[in-house]
Amino acid sequence: MKKKATCEACEEQKKYDEIRNIIDLYRGKEGSLIQVLHTAQKIYGYLPHELQQFIADTMNIPFSEVSGVVSFYSFFSVQPRGQHTIRVCLGTACYVRGGKKLVEHLLKTLNVELGGTTADGKYTFEVARCIGACGLAPAIMIDDVVYKQMTPTKLNALLAKF
Ligand code: FES
To answer: What spatial distance separates the first Cα and last Cα of the chain, rounded to whole Å?
Structure first.
């Protein structure tokens, strides 16, 4: 048990060291905060308060500046995220062609709230406003891949592959 705790602390330290290196890499460059936050979220998975404080201290900027950027952009998350992110498009074309049905289906199938993460940590479920596939609506995204003309049945088959 003790060994595992030590190991977790090592992993945590490794992530912080990696983020410190990224900050050094971007030091003095314009617009670097967003880049640093992006990379930090990739490394750590999300941006908890302590990590935002670490970034502010290491970059020598006020915490309010960091937290302001994090809360302004929806792609930054202060909660742990799932292994995969599912986004159902609810832009007009997708909404009228069944996007809402897909949302209802996923709420039931994944047993998760909108914006939430499944209990097993596998999926974070969100909605989006137009992902550029209106001609083949309804569309969804899983991580960076767009899937078009989705139905609840196709969605089940797709999720079974993950
Ligand atoms: S409205 Fe869904 S892709 Fe454009």
So the answer is: 31
